[in-house]
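I would like you to sit down with the pair of lines that follows and say whether tokens and residues agree.
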Amino acid sequence: MNIDLTGTTTRKIQDALTQSRHLMGGPAVGMVLTLIIVTDESAQYDAVRAATEAAREHPCRVLTVISRDPRGGSSRLDAEIRMGETGPGETVLLRMYGPLAEHADSVVVPLLMPDTPVVTWWPGGKVPKVPAKDPLGRLAQRRVTDSYAARDRLGTLAQLAEGYRPGDTDFTWTRLTSWRSLLAAALDQDHEEITAGEVMAEPDSPSAELLAAWLSVRLGVPVGRSVSEGPGITGVRLATTGGDIVIDRPDGRVATLSRPGQPDRQVSLMRRPMAELLAEELRRLDPDEVYREAAARFAKDLAGGTQKPGVASEPVSATPDAAKTGPARKQAESKQGESKPPARKGRGKSGDA
């Protein structure tokens, strides 16, 4: 069911939602949260489609805030209500004209589901410096951004790291879930002492920078970056005193895990679509402290000039007499001189991991 309301008010929108539920035979409200999407007209289609698919797992009311001509002289609110199309949720597209676009929170607040969590998502490249201080961000327990969609990807990620507040997260981190799970499983097995690491990915990859920062924090060893042609992250190498642990994914779909003294294993490591990333973020609304640590480490290294994100570096290699420091797996300096891995062709469209 689709309902178009032109020059409307929040009261009329709320009445239309109630009437639509009654006509469809669903008088009770079974939504578990409210998802606010802040976007523009060009990106709203993909964002709404992803939210609709995620709503099959998390029934929610989706409020899509679209600013149209904020410099206009008169304010106007147009609404498009979609209900019962492909899932159990409710979708409302709010197009705001004139000065009203500068006060979107005053329109959104009356439409929030009562006594349910709120998630605010900025799918495009325009994100506030501090999402928690944005008027629509203040309404949410969870605030989701996507640095990969920004013009300056690494600068945007560093900016978000500096403005982090509990509840913030970024899709560049969500894309790493499969990589982190595979690395954790590989390191759960017996292995020699890890001395250094390297992440190989396309240039200006925020996910690659976060993965390198996370590995450096958790392993207590230097983790560098080298550039490939993608798609996304193409490999991770961990140098140990007994040989290299390598995950190589040249095509964005299947990875090969190589360990010293063991046969190679192939593992599915698909690049996930936006709907799956959003559904994962909606599963947990508590602060992600691991993301905070990784983002803070990346911002610190970037500000201190200790690394140059997205710039090719010499690959790491193991050295038997590495100096031992650090808590869990002690830090060591590794020799450099292995040949650079071959460049990978092709770029994916689902993000940078």
Remarks:
- The first helix runs from residue 10 to 23.
- The mean pLDDT is 85.
- The first strand starts at residue 2 and ends at 5.
